[in-house]
Every structure is written in C-alpha cells, then in structure tokens.
Amino acid sequence: MDRELTRAELDELVPLYALDALDGEERAQVARYVERDDDARAEVESLREAVSFLPPRETPAPASLWEGIEHSLDVPSVDIAAPPLRLVAADSATSSPARESRLSRRVVAMLAAAAVILAAVLGIQVLRQQDRIDDLAAEMHRDPMEQQAMAARGSSDAHVIALDAMDGDAVDGAAGAEVVMLPDGTGYLMGHVLPTLDADGTYQLWARVGDGTGTRMVSLGLLGRAPGTSPFRLTATPSMFEVTKEPATGSEAPGTQVVLRGEVA
After folding, report:
1. How far is residue 214 CA from its own chain's centroid?
2. CB 3.0 to 4.6 Å from 201: which of 40, 105, 141, 197, for a disulfide?
3. Which residues, in sequence order, are bridge partners of residue 163?
4. What pLDDT score was predicted for residue 2?
5. Residue 234 CB-density burial (10 A; 0-12 exposed, 13-18 middle, 19+ buried)
C-alpha cells in the first residue's frame, strides 16, 4: 500500500484489526489509528472482549451445531466427525469426489458458523452505536442555559473562578461551584450542588468590585430556592464572588450566611 488510509477506511478496518485479520501496511496504519483515537481503541477492546467468549480455535464444535447447520442448509446427513473450527488444506494428489464433497460441506458449515459469530460482533457494534445515539439525544435535551455555559467555559478567552463551599452551618450539603467570565462581561454560575431552600429563602450571587473610592459588593441577582446554571452580566472587574442565603425577597447587602466563595486569581 502506497497511500495513507482515510478516516472512513480506518473505521471500516477497525473490526478486522480487532480480530487479527489484517497484515502489512494496513495493520500498521490501523494500529497507529487505534493508539491515538479513544473511540477506536474502545471499539477494539469491546470486540476482543466479545471474541474472548468464543471457544478456542482448535475446539471441535458440538455435533448438534453441525447437525443444525446441515438441517438449515437442507444438506443430506453424512456420518463424519464434527470438524474443528478451522480450514484444512486438501492434498490435490489424493483428492476424491467424496473427499471434495466433505470438504465443501465443511467449508459451507464453517462459513455459516462464521456468519453467526459475525452477527454477534455486529450486534455489539449496533449496541455501541445506540449508546452514542442515546448520548447525543441526552445532549440535545440538555438545559439550553447549561449548553451556553458549557460553550462559554470551553472558550479560549474564558476566565474560570472556583468557588468553595464555606465551613459552618450556612447550608448543609452545599458543594463547590464555578463562575465562568467572558471578556464582554457575560458570566455564568455553574457546576454547583446547592440544596433546595425553604419557601422563605433564596440564594443570591454577589461580586466584589473596586473603583476609585474603594471596593463594594454588588448583587448579580437572586438565584431562587433551587438554582440551576445562572447567567449574569458584570462590566466592572471583580476580585471575588460569593453566594449567600438570603430572605426570599433578597437583600441589598450580603448577609452572614455565605454558602460559596471564591477569589479571582
């Protein structure tokens, strides 16, 4: 082979590579592809795991299997021992019509058995493909706000600030969170685990900003009793973010029940 295989060609050859059915340059190219591609490597591992449940190559198939194959092919029964699952080269110098007939029937039977094995392998591939479809469907049904926040977080110019859960009795069970800031002032509070508050409470997001007169805390909005991913806008430069527990109507200044806090590095 004097050319590089395309991605599509490599994908088609991955099952054959998993079954050790490639050689030469094809095998070398697929091996390099599997080494660098996580999905291809996972597919090889899955196929080889499936093949590991098959009997060893030299293990004779049970007589019932060959009888069933013969019956399905409508081939007259011949009283011969069930052959192992391998091809045996015929000696042309000693061949006879009866031997050629037995060999032909053996090849047909083994091809039928191989078809069964291939169906099992392809079944695994179908299941893996269905898993990928399910993952895609779940992604499509994700909260649009969460999708926007994830896209912002993946931006090369995003600034991610970690918020840590505060010790004390502010809100039991609260875990850390992240604030994602973009250069245009768009921001998102995401990745948090905040327990649902009672009806008389709400979470509130704050930022500490500075100007010529010093620093002050500004409210970035009420988050509600059970907040999800929350957007906000901030044009000033922040030095710290925090989430507090406040009365349901919110507060003009942060109270003492600080749930999450993170300094801007």
Report:
1. 48
2. 197
3. 177
4. 66
5. middle
**How many other C-beta atoms are found inside a 10 Å radius of the C-beta of residue 105?**
19
How many C-beta atoms surround the C-beta of residue 127 within 10 A? Answer: 10
**Spans of the chain, pLDDT less than 70:** 1-2, 51-143, 167-174, 212
Nearest to 85 by CA among 67, 104, 59, 116: 59
Rounded to 5 degrees, what angle do the CA atoms 246, 250, 252 make? 105
> Per the structure block, which two tokens stand in for 211?
């100007």
Q: From residue 114, how far is each of 107, 122, 211, 215, 253 by CA, in Å? A: 10, 12, 76, 75, 74
Gyration radius (Cα) of the chain, Å:
33
- Amino acid 102: pLDDT: 45
pLDDT of residue 210: 85
CB 218 within 8 A of CB 254: no
- 238-247 and 230-233 strand pairing: unpaired
- Tokens describing residue 116: 């069964």
The three-state secondary structure class of 226 is coil
Q: 């998993």: which residue's tokens?
A: 18
Provide the pLDDT for residue 253.
92
Q: Is 124 exposed, middle or buried (0-12, 13-18, 19+ CB in 10 A)?
A: middle
Per-residue DSSP letter, 173: T
- pLDDT at position 92 is 44
